[in-house]
Write a structure and sequence with these properties.
The complex is a heterodimer of chains A (256) and B (402). Chain A is of the alpha/beta class and 256 residues long. Chain A is built from 7 helices and 14 strands. A 9-stranded mixed beta sheet of chain A has the order 11-10-9-12-8-1-6-7-13, sandwiched between helices. In chain A, helix 3 packs across helix 4. The chains are: A alpha/beta (256), B alpha+beta (402).
Chain lengths: 256, 402
Amino acid sequence: MKIVTILKQVPDAEARVRSKDGTLDLSGATFVIDGMDEYGVEEALRIREGGADAEIVALAFGPKRTAEAIRTALAMGVDRAVHVLGDEPLDALATARVLAPLVRDEGADLVFVGGKQADWDSAALGPALAEALGWPHSDWTTSLTLGDGALEVIHDVDDGSETLTLPLPAVVTTQQGLNEPRYPTLPNIMKAKRKTLDTRALDEVAAAAGVSATSTTELRSAVIESRARRNVMIEGDAASAAAELVRRLRDEAKVL
Amino acid sequence: MTTSAPTPTAPTPATTSALQDFFELDALYTSEERLIRDSVREFVRGEILPEIGEWWQEGRFPADLPQKFGALGMLGVTIPEEYGGAGASATAYGLLNREIEYGDSGMRSFVSVQSSLVMYPIFAYGREALKREWLPRLASAEAIGCFGLTEPDAGSDPGNMRTRCRRVGDEWVLNGVKRWITSGSTAHVAVVWARDESEGTVRGFLVETDAGGFSALDIKTKASMRASVTSELYLDDVIVPEASRLEVQGLRGPLSCLNQARYGIAWGVLGAGFACLEEAAAYVEDRPVFGMPLAGKQLVQASLADMFSDLTKGSLLAYHLGRLKEQGKDTPARVSMAKRDNVRAALRAARAARDLLGGNGITTEYGAIRHMLNLETVSTYEGTDTVHTLVLGREITGHNAF
């Protein structure tokens, strides 16, 4: 069988991202493979380690630096990768339109997509890709068992969980708890260098498939919410300081 | 009545990666080197940082750690794949040391010894069968190794070693005592250096520690490197086959191993130093004094600025030494300069961080005092600060002043 894992490169959760004049300044940020995409890579590897004869292909859209996230997946154990190179971000619908023909060309039986996209928190790419492919989809998936031509999954819903059976091919989006992704081992990092990373231009991929690589949504501005510390020290004796603290919590912070 | 800090908006302190990479060295590493760095960093964050304060306090090196290092492929990374290594660059080895010593110098010591002082001499001087037998097992930590050069009365002057070897047929008989041996009592094999009774030259052997006459005792009274095993080795008529003799003669053998390990230390201590800088920078932001964060005080900033400058310059030195090493240009004097100066920088940073943390700085709830005390060992082992100073003095003047 063939398993495709979709990857996105996002700013490190610990990175300090600033916004200025309606745009994001990512110059100081480090970028990593999306943590929820790693669940998909890990699950694909576990399916193979569980005895399935599977080729695992990573597929990613993004600028040149995305190759680093792809290298991480290759180092974890993915066999080869396709990188659709485009400098400008695409929304989830456009990304799905571009990636769907590639997934189909690969002859994939199973596709993993990160449950959310940590940069925009959209959780839309998995459903959009399933829609573009016309395949069944399980979101927020926490457990997965591969059967004969079908997949049994447990996935989170608002008030608990459901167990579903999906015929293959299918799209699965990940949820925390699906697994604990491995650290890429150092020898595998070195071996990943010899694996195939096929880079294709966005325009060519879109033209070949006859799809539009234009976002439906337009980004007007981006602002990072920030909370400034005020470093206020309340002075006075304990009783009056406590009274002042209560007043501020009630009247200014409005938490009481 | 209230008083407010003079700055109306919250300051934006530099991020972790910004502090650690002020001169944008990141861009100069290969993507494999960055991935190795990041993988080890994640491992240290997940497996070492949450526990290390307790291990250190208890004076314990967890028995399952070597296998975890091995599973990640952290041991002998520069050794070729066919012998179980990763075939990574010297710079990758340096980055690995830096990340692990961000956790603790004792953790890094284990990796240094296994990689530079055990796997390296077997790879460089061992016969093919010896390499095939031991390198893969040492890479996975199925076997642990130690390095016996220093003796109770021979430290900076290893030429005065008393440990002796003598050849009897196809075997060698070893006698002597080695001290300050990392992983000594947990090792399956020991690289032991001994003087040939008949020829006078120094020879190296790979000694299996279950051999008759071999024993080890731990040194328990350390106030430094507490999460690391340090032992004394006793060799009492230990028999070693000729096949386990390393094919090198004279002090060149052990000193070439030390050149590898010292190189790793020049990188490693930067991790400890940056851990202290980051901890201190975060602490002074949170801790108020006279109505404002400590971070707003000039003397505090001066202390941080010194740490920042020292460690940044040390990073540049380590990086360039790595690239020189990859071209075979890591001369002992260059390694001496990097080891000496970077250990000094890290030790100063750790002491300054300990001071900035005030009373909290004397507890192992924070990392500063643990790093500070560990670095006292690092300043002493693998060539004392004095020895490296004299190496540099000789480099300038040509006079040997040891």
